[in-house]
Design brief:
Helices cover 29% and strands 25% of the residues. It is an alpha+beta fold and 768 residues long. It folds into 6 domains: 30-85, Arc Repressor Mutant, subunit A (Orthogonal Bundle), CATH 1.10.10; 92-164, OB fold (Dihydrolipoamide Acetyltransferase, E2P) (Beta Barrel); 171-235, OB fold (Dihydrolipoamide Acetyltransferase, E2P) (Beta Barrel); 257-500 and 568-632, no CATH class; 506-560; 650-750, Nucleic acid-binding proteins (OB fold (Dihydrolipoamide Acetyltransferase, E2P), Beta Barrel). The radius of gyration is 29 Å and the shape is globular.
Length: 768
């Protein structure tokens, strides 16, 4: 059908608030659609756009085609169920306020990158009535953002929803004793100045200690002075390294006095209003070093004759909502933290130990309150039904993963032997059934080895290991996934507000990039706006055992979007589930606590349910806990990088087997598989040729020889330089470049693209 475009100017654009009657044959131009989406980020779904332009019937089909074209052209991207301009700022974003303009209006940048250019500037709107939060320079805020029409001013305005807690005046540094006997603080962050410490303020610090100090007011002459507040440990200890990450990422790690007092005052839950399940032999299966246990499982064959070969699986989760009520000091602190943060030697918990390690830990042989879901599966692994219960339980056994697996493999011990036939084998029988359902569902199957750092008694690195992936791990993982699905289904059926765990499908731009890359290897990827995980699995199956298996796995991984929390559901692409919510870890994730409260309210389970006020704030809360999750991941990653860099600092000039983990115009990132550590090889050090960056093939190739290096290549490198405090390492390439996969035609096309890129203004190449 031919498109009928409007010749109206942008000034005639209709928004949802200024809609006017139009002729039946009116269709907006592409520019009008793009402008509407930019100006209405909170009303940019297909239905919203159709409503704004009064499109009906066939015109809605036409609109769907236009929006798909705009996505294919890279002008639009899909975020949840809304469309957004590529490179635009999220409607709810975390911002850092950095200054004011000439009129005194506060200005901010987003904390996370937006597109590839300079970060956009956001003008912060402050409520004139004084009803909302009042931020200032240096604050980090959660805000709703709106694009502006001012070509000369800020690209967005922002309305502050929440101000994050301000950092204290305390800073981190390394205590140094100079040759003349005076004391200095060497800053951890480059922007901090050196500080002088007088002897009376040394507080027991020794040379090389990582310390927390309070700077005094800068004097007119000389360096500013400071006093040592706390000695965090030697720079070589892991405790010090994780503390750097805690401070660098503003992670709250000390519970305020009112939170601790509130936790200590909590009384254990009673049986009142609960089902008594204490005779059911639920067991916990966790890592051997786990200090809290928030989930327990049990399974049995389904006695229903109408379900031959079926099973009944029970998952019980600690009832945190019984103790952490909305609006209390405990709740406010848990929301501020968002989740627990895990370092190699410590955990920064979301909740005080009185709650997480005591009252809500499903300890063996002790009465504990829980929310339980009982799920019935058919023999082919389909879930037939489920029901939720608020219970009192008593764990029959605390088991470690390896201990449980060893029992099933034929070597039970004193604890697993007595329950082998009654508890352990039925669990594994049920897993075999549920696994069939997983195989039918076909979630994305990326086997990514998870490395674990083992420490010595002094906190330094002993070694890095890759723990074996056991069926015991997979059993618990799949049972938890099914419990999470059941929670989302129940809350939807009850029309109860909730926070979903969502994972969007790869954008069309990422799909096309993957398609071009696969073509260089002689592989194809079918086109289509709605890709499914099994299509990616098919690619992975085709390269299994091939030389480029690691490369393809890495590129497929990087094609995926990041999972997040949202009150709006788009499903979970990676798990191939239509609805999914985190329910199984309320001790360490605030999202799960919200889901528990929703179930309590929806099913009439008594006190501790989701309130109306809380339900109305779920968009804000979702953005906040998504941000704290990313913060935790960054802090954990930085700590591992610093630990490994310190561990390898004494091995400069040693040679290592490595794998190329990243390719850029500037050089190659390499990872040492035995340590999980990353370092960099500058393109200037490769030598022997002029190297060109091919983004499609994820490679650097020589202009003269056509040989080069590609993502996931296995290479040998020499360690040249280490900066332990920054967690940075620089390497030298020892492996000669190789002919790259793909045809000569692909090579010449990449070379032509690279030359065209380098001929554009602002681009520059390097001859080596």
């Amino acid at each position: 059908m031919a498109r009928r475009e409007s010749g109206r100017s942008h000034g005639d654009l209709r928004t949802a608030d200024t809609r006017a009657k139009v002729k039946d044959d009116y269709r907006p131009s592409r520019d009008e659609i793009l402008r509407y989406i930019a100006e209405n980020p909170d009303r940019s779904g297909k239905r919203d756009i159709a409503k704004a332009f009064a499109l009906r019937g066939e015109d809605r089909i036409w609109l769907k085609d236009v929006l798909r074209d705009l996505q294919d052209e890279g002008l639009l991207t899909k975020e949840r169920k809304r469309l957004a301009r590529v490179g635009s700022l999220a409607h709810v974003a975390v911002l850092d306020i950095f200054g004011r303009d000439a009129d005194g209006v506060l200005l901010a940048h987003p904390t996370e990158a937006v597109g590839n250019g300079e970060p956009p500037v956001i003008a912060i709107r402050v409520s004139r009535g004084g009803g909302g939060p009042t931020p200032g320079i240096g604050d980090r805020v959660l805000a709703k953002t709106f694009p502006t029409d001012d070509a000369t001013g800020p690209a967005y305005t922002g309305r502050v929803m929440k101000i994050f807690e301000k950092r204290t005046d305390a800073v981190l540094g390394v205590f140094r004793v100079l040759q003349d006997g005076t004391f200095r603080i060497e800053p951890v962050e480059r922007r901090q100045p050196e500080l002088v410490v007088d002897k009376e303020f040394q507080n027991g610090a020794k040379n090389g200690d990582l310390v927390e100090v309070e700077p005094a007011r800068a004097s007119r002459y000389g360096l500013p002075r400071a006093k040592v507040l706390a000695v965090l440990g030697s720079l070589t200890s892991e405790k010090a390294v994780s503390m750097i990450a805690i401070h660098a990422h503003d992670i709250p790690h000390i519970f305020p006095a009112d939170v601790t007092a509130e936790a200590e005052a909590v009384k254990p839950a009673t049986l009142a209003g609960r089902e008594d399940w204490r005779e059911l032999p639920l067991v916990t299966i966790d890592p051997a070093d786990a200090k809290d246990h928030d989930d327990a499982v049990f399974a049995t064959a389904d006695p229903d004759e109408k379900n031959p070969g079926g099973v009944v699986v029970t998952v019980a989760i600690a009832d945190v909502a019984a103790y952490v009520r909305y609006g209390t000091a405990l709740d406010r602190e848990a929301l501020k933290r968002g989740n627990s943060v895990y370092f190699p030697d410590r955990v920064v918990p979301m909740l005080p130990e009185r709650i997480s390690n005591d009252l809500c830990s499903l300890r063996e042989g002790q009465d504990r309150p829980a929310l339980a879901v009982r799920m019935t599966f058919s023999a082919d692994g389909r879930k037939l039904r489920h029901s939720f219960h608020r219970i009192m339980m008593k764990s029959a056994a605390k088991l470690a993963y390896r201990q449980a697996q060893t029992a099933i493999d034929g070597a039970p011990d004193d604890k697993t032997g007595p329950i082998l036939d009654t508890v352990m084998k039925p669990l594994w029988d049920a897993y075999a059934v549920v696994k069939r359902g997983r195989e039918t569902r076909q979630p994305l199957e990326l086997e990514l080895p998870e490395r674990k750092i083992l420490l010595k008694e002094d906190g330094t690195v002993d070694r890095v290991v890759v723990p074996e992936r056991l069926d015991a791990h997979k059993l618990i993982e799949e049972f938890m996934i099914q419990a999470n699905v059941a929670a989302a289904e129940t809350l939807e059926a009850k029309r109860q507000a909730l926070v979903y765990r969502i994972h969007d499908a790869p954008s069309l731009a990422k799909q096309e990039s993957l398609r071009e890359f696969l073509q260089t290897l002689g592989l194809s990827l079918a086109r289509g706006a709605q890709m499914r995980p099994n299509q990616f699995n098919g690619i992975l199956d085709r390269v299994r055992g091939a030389d480029h298996e690691g490369l393809v796995n890495e590129v497929v991984l990087r094609t995926q979007m990041q999972a997040e929390y949202s009150p709006s559901n788009i499903g979970h692409f990676g798990l191939n589930l239509k609805r999914y919510a985190h329910f199984t870890s309320p001790i360490r994730r605030y999202a799960d606590l919200i889901v528990h409260r929703g179930l309590i309210a929806a099913l009439g389970f008594g006190a501790g349910g989701l309130t109306q006020d809380e339900a109305e704030r779920l968009e804000e809360v979702s953005a906040l806990i998504s941000a704290t999750e990313r913060r935790a991941m960054a802090a954990e990653r930085d700590t591992v990088d610093r630990l490994i860099a310190a561990y390898l600092a004494e091995r400069v000039d040693d040679c290592f087997d490595a794998r190329i983990s990243g390719v850029t115009k500037s050089g190659l990132f390499v990872q040492l598989p035995q340590y999980g550590a990353d370092g960099f090889i500058p393109v200037s050090s490769l030598g022997g040729d002029y190297y060109i960056y091919d983004e499609t093939a994820r490679s650097l190739f020589g202009e003269r020889t056509g040989k080069g290096y590609q993502l996931a290549d296995r290479v040998e490198v020499r360690l040249i330089e280490v900066a332990p405090m920054a967690g940075a390492m620089r390497f030298e390439m020892l492996t000669d470049p190789k002919p790259l996969p793909g045809s000569k035609r692909s090579f010449h096309k990449a070379k032509g693209r690279a030359r065209a890129s380098q001929s554009r203004p602002g681009s520059r190449g390097r001859r080596r």
